[in-house]
Queue: 3 jobs
Job 1
Amino acid sequence: MSKSPCVTLHGVLLEAEGLGVLLTGASGAGKSASALELIQRGARLVADDAPEFRLNADGKPEGCCPAPLRDFIEVQGLGLLDIRALYGAGSLRERVTLDLIIELQVRHGPVARTPYGPDYQARAVLGVAVPLLTLHLAHGYSATPWIEALARNHTLRLQGYQAQHEFLERHARALRRA
C-alpha cells in the first residue's frame, strides 16, 4: 500500500466469498465469533479489532493488519487465538480491498422481515463510499450464513443481478398473463 493517509476502523476484516468484508458492530455483537466461523468455512483473516486502511493505486480503500496484531483474533469466551497456528497460513491474507461493510446488530426482540433485501447504505472510508449493510439478528443466532449470503448477493449485484428486481418482474409478468 502507498503512504497515503491511513485510517483505523473498529471491526474484523476478512476476505469472504472473494470480497473484502469488514464486520462492525458493538462489543458482543458477534464479530469475532462470526469471523472464526467464516475462517473455518474458507474465509481468510486480514485483521481483528483494528484494521488499517489506505487508498490503493486504484483509489479504493485497502486494509491490512498492524504488525503487533497480525495472525491473532480475540473471541469472547476463547481469548486470543493464533489463526496461523490453528488453521495455517492459507487462512490469512495480508491485505484486501474493502468491498463491503456489514454491521452486526443483535436484537433481543423480534427481527423485522426484509422481503426485498437489505437496504444498502454507504460509509465513507478515506473519502470513498463503501456499501454498508446492517444485519439484524435475534440474540443467539449465528450470523455466519447471513454474512456469506450477503457477500454472495453483493457479488451478484456488482454483476448487475438483483434478486428483488427479478422477483418483482416475474410477478408482474404473471399478473399481466392472468
Job 2
Amino acid sequence: GSCGVQIWTHYDIMDNMLIQIVGEKRVVLFSPSDTQHMYLNGDKSEVLDIDNPDPKQFPDFLKAIQYECILKP
C-alpha cells in the first residue's frame, strides 16, 4: 500500500498469506481470544485508530494484547 495508509481493523475468515515485496509494512495482530475486547461489528472493529483508541468510547479495547511486527522483503 501507499506510505502512511492505515487499513481498518478487521479479521479474515479465510486463511491468508501476506508477502512484502518492497519497503516495509507494520502489521498488528490480535489473538482470537481477545475478540470480546475488539468492539466487532461484522468482520470489522469499531475502533478505527488502534494506536490511540478513545478509552471512554472503547474501554475494553485496552485489554486486548497487540502483537506487532514489521514486514520487510
Job 3
Amino acid sequence: MSIRQAAELWSVTKSTLQRRLKNKQMAKYGRPTVLIKDEERELVDRLQIAAEWGFSLTTFDISGIVKRYLDNKGVSEPRFKTNLPGIDWAISFLCRHKHDLLTRLGENIKRSRAEVDANVLKKIFWKLRSIEGVSPDLMINYDETNLTDDPGRLKCIVRRGFKIPERVLDTSKSSTSVMFSGTASEKLLSCYVVYKAEHLYDTWQQGGPRGTRYNRSKSGWFDGVIFEDWFVTVPLKYFQKI
C-alpha cells in the first residue's frame, strides 16, 4: 500500500505519514508552556525544598514566583495579565508534575516552635540519660494541640508523600485544645479537651472517646488551673493504679 492510499484510507495527511515513517521528532500538541522543561523542573525542586524547610507555598505563591522570574528576564507573556499566572495555569502546572507535587492542608506553627537546632536536640538526649533504667510504664509523654478546624489554614504545595506540611508564621490560630498523653510502653491515657467558652455544656461532653475529660477557659488554651486538673485526673490517677 502506498502512502497516498494509506492517507486516503485513514483520512490522514501524507506529510504526517511521511514524518512517522522517517521517525522525525513530532512536536507536542497545543501551545508551548510558558516555562521550558528545565525551568519547570527547577521550580519543582525549589517547591519541595521549601516544604521540607517548613515554608510550604500556595498556588498563589507559585504565580508570584513565576511573575517575578518573567519580569527579571524581561519577558512579557501575553497569556498572563501583568505577567501574573492565574489559577488555571497553577492547576495545569501541578497536573504536569503530579508525580512530584500535590496539595495538602498546611498546619500553621509559630516561628518559635520551628526554631529547633542541633544544640536543642543534644540537650534533650542528654537529659534522657538521667531516666535510664526507669520502667517504660512510668514514662509519660504529653502534648497539647488544637483541633483541625482552623479557617486560616491553606493548601500548600509539597513533595508527593509529604504527610503534614507546615507553614512557619509569627502567629497561629487558636481553637479548642486537646491534651494527648501516653506512656513509653504504648499505653494511651485519657484525652483532656478544653473549649473556648464561659460555661461547659453537657452536650459538649457527649460522643467523645471513653474516659475523656472536658473543661473550658476564656482563651481555649490550658492555663495553670486546668493543667493542674489534668495532672491530677489523668497521669496521677494512672500512677495510683500501678
